[in-house]
Amino acid sequence: MTTDYKSTVFLPKTDFPMRAGLPKREPEILAWWKEIDLDRRIREVRKGAEPFILHDGPPYANGHLHMGHALNKILKDLVNRTQHMAGKRTHYVPGWDCHGLPIEWKIEEDYRSKGKDKDAVPVVEFRRQCREFADQWIDTQREEFKRLGVTGDWDHYYTTMTFKAEAQIAREIGKFLMDGSLYKGARPVMWSVVEKTALADAEIEYHDHTSTTIHVRFPVIKPGNPALDGAAIVIWTTTPWTMPGNRAVAYGDDIDYVVVEPTEVAENSLAVVGEKLVVARTLLDDFKAQTKVTALKEVASLKGADIAGTVCAHPLRGQGYDYDVPALAADFATDDAGTGFVHIAPGHGADDFVLGKANDLEVPQTVGDDGVFYDHVPIFAGMHVLEDNMKIAAIIRDHGGLVARGKVKHSYPHSWRSKAPLIFRNTSQWFISMETTGLRDKALKAIDETRFVPAAGQNRLRGMIETRPDWCISRQRAWGVPIPVFTSKETGEPLRDQAVIDRVAEAFEKEGADAWFSSDPSRFLGPDHDPKDYEQVSDIADVWFDSGSTHAFVLESEDEAWADLPWPAQLYLEGSDQHRGWFHSSLLVGCGTRGRAPYEAVLTHGFINAEDGRKMSKSLGNGVDPLEVIEQSGADILRIWVVSSDFTEDLRVGPGILKHAVDHYRRLRNTLRYVLGALDGYSASEALPAERMPELERWVLHRISEIDAVVRQCTHDFDYHTMFLTLHQFCASDLSAFYFDIRKDSLYCDAPQSDRRRAVRTVMNTLFECLTTWLAPICCFTAEEAWRARNTGEFDSVHLQAYPTIPAEWCDEALAEKWAKIRAVRRVVTGALELERAEKRIGSSLQAAPTVYMSAAEKAAFEGLDAAEIFITSGATLSEGTGPDAAYRLSDVAGVACDPTPAAGDKCERCWRVLPEVAVGDPICDRCEDAVSGLVDAAE
After folding, report:
1. Which of 333, 492, 614, 638 matches a 20 to 30 Å C-alpha distance to 185?
2. Which residue ranges make up the annotated binding site?
3. Which amino acids are annotated as binding site for L-isoleucyl-5'-AMP, given as ranges?
4. What is the pTM of this model?
5. Cα separation of 418 and 435, whole Å?
6. Where on this chain does L-isoleucyl-5'-AMP bind (predicted)?
7. What residues are designated binding site for Zn(2+)?
């Protein structure tokens, strides 16, 4: 009778499936997490531990989840989960930004589609609709973020529009008011004529724009140098509409200028033969081409410093522009474009304003909030600054001021929301001074004390703070926190009274910021101030002030749900654009009100591009919807995509890249599945002490200690890319292609109680505990599924565990060095056997018993080991020497050669090794005979 040896082989057995089915499985895991209230348990299990609080930068409550959201939230979840695994107490409070222009713009769009006038709607009613719009999207986004596997306090999230938040934002503004930092001033700000409001830097994006350009004469009426007598200084500008606001021309002290006289001009040239014009020498050729001057002669040359004291006339002198136009030295005047002269309109440029203030120039009010010139502006009243530039240029031409007109395509600021071009416009706004209380110096000191990852972020933020002007915090909109200030009708000065601020905050906390619009001013002014003497400010606060204040009403909250949140936060994490956004505004609010940054560290990630490196856009059709990826492949695939990229740089995503993520995932899943199968029926009584284990198992323990050190260091460094690559390489190379490959014979065929098989299973148990906890932050669903395959307690989640503590004695550098030599030799043998299989001389490596040639040092490494077991052959002979010329070699493994000799004997029907001891009448080898006999004895 033939014996069925297959039934005596210990093949891996597990219910953990090969096919993940993540789109179906992940929602089931999410439901279980909700059932056991996992988020709360994560906090409770580390109660009393050192805190690590990542304060959430609020996404905008507007629209479905996109890939940028997915990247950001997954990274934040990686931070929280790894810090939890490292033993820290985490408490992630998600938040949303709710005020501001994007939502207001959506409601206005709805009004316009219905023919309604926003200004005819009561402001409180309009604000109610904005609030409802934000609420709707918060609910939607919250569920979409949960689907990514992000753990957090989803029942106690924060928003900037809760009554308590609005009250605290008002208090924060009040602190700047009371210390004298907040003031009202008129200066140029970036202005949207479509949305009729000032915009912050973070609300601006740059797109190509075609502008009308003009070269304009400014006749010299008082020369500072004789060479300028009778000449005209020529400026070049891309904004003809700013000419009514001109009050000076600027030159560079060190620039070489020339006075030229056209002698020949082309047809249609606006230059005049015989006139004297002043331009920079290096720009003369370009000037001739632009003005169609075909020949000229140089009358004089001079340095910019020689122009000092010169006074010009406005090109429209006699038409209502009869003031003098002085020539002023300016560092920003260069000779790399235009004419080397800059026309100065103090109401329409930051540099212009500063230069104007320094020289007591008038800052005229010329343009209304709709982009139309005021009625008092001579000639141009009623014209639109963006639509009528050709008309403006024609008027200047008709009055003799134009030398040339053209067009240029250049990068130009646009509104992030409306996509409309912006203008610099002088307006009366509320500012926080960078100097009055030393805010700039405090912020720079805080930057030096903050950890930045990557480190380049420190210099970027520092550069912005060093050069930034005072912070304009006022917006001319309706949806947001009002600037809770009253100004004296007599002096225009703001009322600085803490009691007033307290009454405002109290009202906001009870009724929300709507109280500012629905209450009589006497409610806030109280008995000490007569409402007839004060104006109530109608502007709302910049939304960046809102989000910059979130630390004040979340980290310092008295709410019981957030009582364990410390201030400052250990980490802020956002995209690199937030150096000028949330990191920036939070820094200023924190330093201005508390003397330091509200964070200890700042981590930034890059932006997302399409697979080919181009920017994602609807027109190109190269966008990737994370919700579709989740539906097709699962959230764990997105999470692997995040860590398989260097997220500190810009990332790419597309079908091919996501396919690689799927491949990476399969390797990890198959590794977990193999370990689970190998542990079928394992119990603690089977464990073998490390000192009794074979070298190969002790080498795996050494590698575990090395991987543990990398994981912990990466957790500290927020380096999840290196962490993932290390884990993937460990699974693919050290385990699947090496350790598992070698030990499957022992696992399948050794007697159950043999030390070697017990050692394998003991190591597999350790690998299971390590791999599931190491991978839990990355593949949060799959790690949970694998953990639950062995741990089925009611509340037994891998996410309540910690990184296993690895005994220091497992680290064995000498052993690692020895096995590095062994693995190198094995690579040569494996290559030789693969070639034999390709040539069909053998079907399996077990049909070979190679002779391997090597140095004495390599041979010594194999002392006491079964080389055939390591090579997965049926025999092996190790010889010192170089070996025959025909032997197989690898160029990167010097001094090792392999002669793949066939094995002698017959094939064991149980382990398939070819051995001399296997005879026709005795179909299995001695090792298998002992194992089978042991099974029979155990059964009896």
Report:
1. 333
2. 574, 618, 908, 911, 925, 928
3. 574
4. 0.86
5. 33
6. 574
7. 908, 911, 925, 928
